[in-house]
Design a protein that fits this description.
The complex is a heterodimer.
Chain A (H helix, E strand, L loop, with lengths): L3 E4 L2 E5 L4 E7 L5 E7 L5 E8 L4 E4 L2 E6 L4 E6 L8 E7 L9 E2 L3 E6 L1
Parallel strand pairs in A: 2-11
Antiparallel strand pairs in A: 1-3, 3-8, 4-5, 4-9, 6-7, 7-8, 9-10, 9-11
Chain B lengths: L4 E3 L2 E4 L5 E6 L6 E7 L6 E7 L2 E5 L7 E4 L6 E5 L8 E8 L9 E2 L3 E5 L1
The chains are: A mainly beta, B mainly beta.
Chain lengths: 112, 115
């Protein structure tokens, strides 16, 4: 079963624009992670945000977390063609199990 | 290379054959995960280990699937009597538990094709 759902499913933007992806989840969490996956490749870890954090930055990435709404957003600023990939959020739960459950992903296409 | 390593990267097998995949986690990581991903979907959890103990298995992991981590280091995932529906990318990840919350890092995956 999927814990998270990303929105939109697909996003196409011009190089230089900002891209925003959203993730909603169902149960309480300890932390949420965002990953990037290029076609046919493994997942690259982007950023982890803890449940007691509201915002984190890493380079051109900005992640927010709203635990009251059970949602997170990933903002990529000044996008580049190389950002073209699928982006997934993954959540653990605070139920004592430590598996990560992934959403369905957002496919981002950045046009040069 | 100190990342998560998976072997082989690609495997083509005939239906009914057994296959085994290997995952070498980041050396100090005590937690190891297996996921399966089909085209256009997010990774689906299969199982995870803390050290050598297998702590959870998904209902997706039928009796034909078995995973081991005998010495708490590398892990193997075996699929017996493969079926065409087993065709997928099998991903391994590792993390460090016990010193706060740490990231889970993934390998490049093993792509299985059952013909």
């Amino acid at each position: 079963s999927q814990q998270g759902e990303e929105d939109p499913q697909a996003l196409s933007i011009q190089e230089g624009e900002n891209a925003t992806m959203n993730c909603s989840y169902k149960t309480s969490i300890n932390n949420l992670q965002w990953y990037r996956q290029n076609s046919g490749r493994g997942l690259v870890h982007l950023i982890l945000i803890r449940s007691n954090e509201r915002e984190k930055h890493s380079g051109r990435l900005r992640v927010t977390l709203d635990t009251s709404k059970k949602s997170s957003s990933l903002l990529i600023t000044a996008s580049r063609a190389a950002d073209t990939a699928s982006y997934f959020c993954a959540t653990d739960t605070d139920s004592g199990t430590y598996k990560y459950i992934f959403g369905t992903g957002t496919r981002l296409k950045v046009l040069a | 290379d100190t990342g998560v390593s998976q072997d082989p990267r690609h495997k083509i097998t005939k239906r009914g054959q057994n296959v085994t995949f290997r995952c070498d986690p980041i050396s100090e990581h005590n937690r190891l995960y297996w996921y399966r991903q089909t085209l256009g979907q997010g990774p689906e959890f299969l199982t995870y280990f803390q050290n050598e103990a297998q702590l959870e298995k998904s209902r997706l992991l039928s009796d034909r699937f078995s995973a081991e981590r005998p010495k708490g280091s590398f892990s193997t995932l075996e699929i017996q009597r493969t079926e065409q529906g087993d065709s997928a990318m099998y991903l391994c990840a590792s993390s460090l538990a016990g010193v706060g919350i740490t990231e889970a890092f993934f390998g490049q995956g093993t792509r299985l094709t059952v013909v």
